[in-house]
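$ fold --in a.seq
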Amino acid sequence: MIRLLVQKITFAGCALSIAVLLLMGCAGKNAQSNEHAGSSANIPLLPHTIEHDGNQRQYLLRLPSGELPAKPIPLVLVLHGGGGRPDNFDYLMTNHTLSKADDSRSMMLVFPTGINKQWNDGRSEIFKGKPSYDDVGFIDAVISDVVSQYPIDESRIYATGISNGGHMSFRLGMELATTIAAIAPVTAQVSKSISKQIPAKTLGVMLVNGTEDPLVPYDGGLIKLSKIGRSRGEVLSSEQSAVLFSQHNGCNESAATITLPDSNRSDGTLVRVHSYDNCNDQVTVKLVEVVGGGHTWPGGRQYLGKRRIGRVSKDINASELILDFFLSQTR
């Protein structure tokens, strides 16, 4: 049974714990209401509930500019990090750059909710001693639910997310490639646990990763919340992750690299874009290397101190970059 809930929701502040460091969800005492989290224009996020696998699961939906589109538009799945929440993602992670970019591009943003603020992205280390959930099936059901109620261009369905949400984007790309046209994980790489999977189709991929991410190592290795903490899985390097998809897509063996203008010299970062072109089916694979960047959303908010998560690059607006990349990809 599927039921639609349209109501305004609010949430209280939450205490910061070490677990949140991997994936960011606590807005603290200054947490905003759901209405303000939608965009700077106060467009509300519409709550929806579906039943999947015996559980009541939720997602939030944002209409571009707050209006029901007159014709089919792209759908973008936005996945929160571990310990995070969908209702404050736009405010806490992107500093409202995502909703602003969406309003000028007319795309449907959908924010699913992970059970216990986590996604089953394929890394078994996350759920040691705890039950895991069919999040691939849940998100597939979310897509079906949205498509059944709103005008969606089904050739333009995309997924992005940060950290645990970025890793989940990779899993969706592997397992839902016949549905999803492109993914854009942020602060995430392909985990060893899913690296042998083969997507059923070609897939557009753009990674956005910081070279000084203290949690997810840019050059690959073990993910840890602290130097002495337990492993939360092993990931390929950023370059290996990009090459994995470029080879699957039949792209050029070598990437073409450009260095973007250092538009903000005080942020301590520089951005290089590595593009694997001439792929099959006109898809593209890109690695956005944020030199000096941390476990953050470029152009977004410094949601925790630099010593804990590293720097936020102000040289690029990742929200605009991601949505423009999506618009260039179709299934």
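$ fold --in b.seq
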Amino acid sequence: MKELYTSGIIHRDLKPANILINDGVFKIADFGFAKDVDYKSDKLLVSCVGSPMYMDPLILSRKPYGTKCDMWSLGIILYELLYGEVPWPGCRNEQQLLINIFTKPIVFNTVKKNENQ
């Protein structure tokens, strides 16, 4: 992610299917929606691309967005890795997902320690 950011590339479709692991090395795949940007610039993007469940709310809302949109996607992926599901499962469309993002807080359940440790 750091390499992409410092190179001025927004992936715009980060999701588990686009993260490959080989011998403990993580690689990002499928740069079909990637865009070159100047991360120091105030210029924002407006095109709506990506996989809705992992899209930044600004993209879902059809509002201008910048380089931070990939961080949102990465956060959703990390949540899914920790809890085995996305934060808002069962959304049938983008509108319902957007409503849930703004009205239903993300729940971070604690992991119970093994009592034998």
